[in-house]
Amino acid sequence: MTDHTTTQATGPLVEVTGLRKAFGGTTVLRDIDFTVPKGSVTVLLGPSGSGKTTVLRSLNVLDLPDAGVVRIGDASVDFSAVTRGRDGRARGESAKSVAALRRQSGMVFQQHNLFPHKSALENVIEGPVVVQGEPVREAEERGRELLAKVGLADQADKYPYQLSGGQQQRVGIARALALRPELLLFDEPTSALDPELVGGVLSVMRELADEGRTMFVVTHEIRFARDVADQVLFMDGGVVVERGTPAEVIDAPRMERTQTFLKRIL
Ligand code: ADP
């Protein structure tokens, strides 16, 4: 099995149409539309509270959107048509299609969310072994390769508390890769790190981009966005206000809201 098999030979890998989400009567996402070509990097920018994390969580279906269609590769869910139980979760056939959509992406969180009582390697193999039923020995072999890829070949047996924040984030990246996702999602992966640890995480992300992985990244690292992104989306108030290449959105923003935001963070 390769890391990114695809059944969708043409067209974008990701297609999002009319995505809507409210929390307790407050609308957080209003008709979000975008596409992500296979092998490209999209950076999602926007002020705090604009809905960026909710977009990521919708792609990975950690939150169930109220409406809209999300397609990743050959898995697609129309959230208006999902059957929901009293707990708000998808039920029956809907639960199966949601699970299939979830399998298409792997998420790297702002805080790594590693299991504290498991070693780096055990954290990385947890998903393949427990969720995907991969034999432990094979998962370990591949887990070690992934840890080497993120620069942690000699840290496989360390526990999270023995690693720096940057190393923990890199374990988080290896763990996301271990599930062989079509799409990698990053939710401000460097924002909780001390400044001197940011570079190591960003350089791993650059390498992944160079390998042609499809990435969707929420970050305030504008230099990374300029250098690596193929597409930049700027969100405010639950809508995508502006989109384009980094040269368009970051260096020559047309919308006042984008200009104001960039002035604040640059
Ligand atoms: P961002 O990532 O851009 O900071 P979020 O997607 O985290 O924005 O949040 C967008 C809005 O949705 C915020 O107003 C936030 O308070 C609200 N929100 C997010 N998650 C929840 C939740 N689980 N329950 C209630 N409100 C939420």
UniProtKB/TrEMBL annotation:
Membrane topology: Peripheral membrane protein
Alphabetized GO MF terms: ATP binding
Pfam families: ABC_tran (PF00005)
Endpoints of the signal sequence: none
Main localization category: membrane
Subcellular location: Cell membrane
Keywords: ATP-binding, Cell membrane, Membrane, Nucleotide-binding, Transport
Domain of life: Bacteria
Matches recorded under PROSITE patterns: ABC_TRANSPORTER_1 (PS00211), ABC_TRANSPORTER_2 (PS50893)
InterPro entries: AAA+_ATPase (IPR003593), ABC_ATPase_HisP-typ (IPR030679), ABC_transporter-like_ATP-bd (IPR003439), ABC_transporter-like_CS (IPR017871), MetN_ABC_transporter-like (IPR050086), P-loop_NTPase (IPR027417)
Protein name stated in the entry: Amino acid ABC transporter ATP-binding protein
Organism: Dermacoccus barathri
